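Field reference: sequence -> structure
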Amino acid sequence: MKSSVEFGTGRGPMGAAAVLGLALAGPACAADLPTATTPRQPAFTYVDPQTWEITLSGTIQAIPRYPGASDYTWVWYPGGDIRRAGEPKRFSAPDDNLSFTLYDTEQFRAGPTLRFVPGRFYGDDRQHLFGLRDARIAFEPGLFVEVYPVPSVRLRGEVRQGVYGHHGTVGTVAVDYLIPFDRWMFSVGPRFNIGDASFARKYFGVSPAEAAINGRLTPYSPGSFYSAGLVGAVTFRQDETWSYTLFGGYSRILGPSGASPLVDRPYGNPDQYTGGLRVDYTFRTKPLF
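Structure field:
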C-alpha cells in the first residue's frame, strides 16, 4: 500500500480554484515503456525495498480572484509525493486538491482530501462590492475516491464539507483521459462541481440589506450551485529527476448561481479560467531510522 500526499487548490470556478495538484504520471507512463531511447530494464534488476522515492513540486497558477470573479490573481504552492522505490507514480491532475491516500490498488484508491476556496473581500473591488459582506477564505475537508476502469481513464469523485468560511456541502466529479507518448503525458477531461444552497448563498447570494446598501444590485438567493468545464495538461519528463507540467482549464457557472447578479459584468463573469506551470523534482532516499 502506498501513502502519498498531494497538494492542490481544486479548480473549477471553485477550485477556484484551487488548483496544481502534482506530477502527471500514469500507471502506464510512456517514459517507463521501452522505446528507441529508453532500453528495457532487465527483469532481475534489484530495487532496495527500504528505498523511498520522494517528489517535491512547485506550482504557479493564475486563478479567479474569488468564485465568480472577472479578474485574476497568481498563487504559488508546494506539493509532494512519497512512495517506495519501484512503485509506479500515480497520475495526479493539476486541479486535484490536497489528498492523502490511505488505500491504494491498481484500479482503486481512496482517502481524505482538502480544498481551499479564495475569499471575496470589499478591497478586491471597492466600486462593485460596496455594501456586500466579505466571504472569508474557506476550507473544505472531505473524502476522495479514484477508479481506473482501464489504465488510460481515471474517474475521481470528491465529497467535502465546509468547516470555515462557509458550512455548505460540495462535491466534484472528474474524468481524465491519459495519453502517454515517449517522454510526454497528455491528459484531458471534463469537470463537474456542485454545491448546496448554503454554499451558493455564501458566494452568489445578495441579501435585501446588501442590495439596499449597494444601490445597484437586486436581492438574490440561489438554491444551489453547479458548474461544468474541462481541464487539460501536458507533462514532459526530462529524466528520472525533473519533469514539467503545463496546464489550463475552463468552467462555466450554471444554474441558479449562474443567474446571480454577482456573476454578471461588471461584478463578475460566469466563465472561469485557470492556467499554470508545475515543476517536479524526484530523488531517492532511505529512512533515517
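Note: Confidence is low (pLDDT under 50) at residues 1-45.
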